[in-house]
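Task card 7
Instruction: Convert sequence to structure tokens.
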Amino acid sequence: MKYAPIAISPEQAQFLETRKFQINEIARIFRVPPHMVGDLEKSSFSNIEQQSLEFVKYTLDPWVSRIEQSMVRSLLTKEEKQEYFIKFNVDGLLRGDYQSRMTGYATGRQNGWMSANDIRELENLDRILESEGGDLYLINGNMLPLKDAGAFANKKNDEVEDSNGENENRNGRAKVRKVDSS
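Output:
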């Protein structure tokens, strides 16, 4: 038998470390996160999404803005510039994970600043007909239409029942006692 070492020599190990460093340097020069060039050594499931959002925000956005401005300057006449603009839509790249989006949509829907059709447009789904309530803005509290929120509280003699079965007008003066007729 002859002994054959399994480990690599120090020179080969140093060469491999240099190659790893080169990958990170190239990614750094082009402002690309290492995971986008295949270096997953320092990446995890929890930070990949954030790194991708930072890539769009800090690397793509400046270039996209320059290209938009150049296209407007080169392609549109002075009159067209008053009416049209050029804008790249990078919203798809900025979208979070499914659970975060749905939580955000639910918050917007329940607080009355998003309709079902607003949400469906963001998810590239077909609109719900207006007659079926697709454009209703609702608020939590049995999901009332926004225009009906507080309608019952605005009645002049709106009565509030206390725990003893007594009703009291909002002004606190007249009290009515419920009597069981059975």
